[in-house]
Specification:
six-stranded mixed sheet; Immunoglobulin-like; 3 domains; mainly beta; single chain; about 0% helix; about 400 residues; 28 strands; 1 helix
């Protein structure tokens, strides 16, 4: 019997050449809008406002630099905290947001977090923070979380609270030392409660420059961003927003993960036999190598697209193409398991009954281990062990009804 598996699809990379090398090491902050207008209105310059949930044009874009694998960023946190003297003395501005369970970024994919008016393109903002007001995913320092224009920062934390990526900026370019001298960078953000207890989240000042936090200079005009060019690349400033378009690709150049597919045709083994098989057909272009586990020797070579003489088992096939490797598991289950027929009940001691096997119609009858002494197999066709079960009659005597133990004579 052959079973055709449904199409198995795997993300692989087709990297378009660019002038800059992209690091594939982690999830990164990819684009930040700290100053969406020149007028400085509180409604526009907001990530989220608890008292005005329709306000907000600021946003942060997160990017998965891995060209091969989707990444689960559940409970990753974006956060910042500064002190704005223009609002009220000692007033902190900032907040934090933990991504909900099940948040997945596909290979080379983007997720945008911010205000409801961050983009005129529907669907460009994946997580509108105003929708989380009052929920444990969101913490706001006062009533409004916004990114400082003059001296600000934003960080991405892992679910453990460790820093994954962060940037900071100043009122003018060429002032990286303000990280240690300006009080704006010395405050620890509040913590969301949706993901359990967390350690204190580092302030920008507590982060290590170069490995945790990067200086991105300043933005000289409104409606311009800090952006990595290309996606996941080096930081640049005064860049037009990418999220107003249809693809979110920074600098107009996309690193594209191409969907590759293959078909698996499976022949299931029959019960007790090593006669199963798996055959793979990759339907996309490019050199492909395979690795099989467990090893279905002698076919386990780098170019083997099929394996035969397989026993019932779960086989993992690693498929590598264009620098990416993905595993898929296929389980072979035996077919044609013997069936001795219906259970016999209500039979008195000293009487007999007949069992009739069902498909398959050949097999071996044997005494169940643990039957009482004297239990024997009755007459079978021709007195042989392998017989047409549907034609065979076997006499049974029930000795112990309460235990359903059968003696065969």
């Amino acid at each position: 019997m052959q079973t055709r598996f449904s199409l198995i699809r795997i993300f692989f990379l087709c990297i378009f050449l660019s002038l800059q090398t992209v690091s594939f090491s982690k999830i990164v902050i990819n684009e930040v809008m700290p100053k969406p207008n020149t007028s400085g209105t509180a409604c526009d310059q907001t990530m989220v406002n608890a008292s005005a949930n329709t306000c907000g044009k600021e946003y942060v874009e997160i990017y998965n630099t891995d060209p091969c694998n989707a990444v689960d960023i559940s409970c990753y946190i974006i956060a910042s905290k500064t002190q704005n003297g223009n609002i009220a003395a000692g007033t902190f501005i900032g907040g934090s947001f933990a991504f909900p369970a099940g948040t997945i970024i596909p290979p080379l994919g983007h997720i945008v977090v911010g205000g409801p008016n961050a983009s005129a393109t529907a669907g460009s903002v994946d997580f509108i923070l105003a929708n989380y007001i009052g929920q444990p995913n969101l913490c706001i320092e006062s009533t409004r979380w916004f990114l400082e224009n003059t001296a600000g920062w934003i960080a991405l934390y892992k679910p453990t609270g460790a820093v994954e990526d962060a940037i900071y900026w100043t009122f003018s370019a060429g002032n990286p030392n303000l990280l240690t001298s300006d009080a704006e960078f010395s405050f620890n953000p509040c913590k969301p409660t949706s993901c359990g207890a967390l350690p204190t989240l580092k302030s920008a000042k507590q982060m290590t420059v170069g490995t945790e936090i990067t200086y991105v200079q300043d933005v000289t005009s409104a409606n311009l961003t800090f952006s990595r060019i290309p996606d996941g690349g080096a930081w640049q400033r005064n860049i037009s927003p990418s999220i107003a378009g249809t693809n979110n690709c920074n600098g107009g150049t996309c690193n594209t993960a191409t969907l590759i597919s293959f078909n698996a045709v499976v022949t299931q083994p029959t019960c007790g036999n090593n006669n199963g098989s798996i055959s793979l057909t990759v339907t996309t272009a490019g050199a492909v190598t395979f690795s099989w586990s467990p090893n279905p020797s002698p076919t386990n070579t780098a170019t083997a697209t099929s394996a035969s003489n397989l026993a019932a088992n779960t086989y993992t096939i690693s498929v590598t193409q264009n620098g990416c490797t993905k595993d898929t598991s296929i389980t072979l289950s035996p077919t044609g398991k013997p069936n001795a027929g219906s259970n016999q009940t209500g039979i008195c001691a000293g009487t007999s009954t007949t069992l009739t096997g069902t498909t398959p119609t050949t097999g071996t009858w044997s005494i169940q281990t643990g039957n009482p002494a004297g239990a024997t197999l009755g007459t079978t066709t021709g007195g042989i062990a392998s017989v047409p079960l549907q034609q065979m009659q076997v006499e049974f005597i029930i000795l112990f009804i309460q235990r359903m133990v059968v003696q065969i004579r």
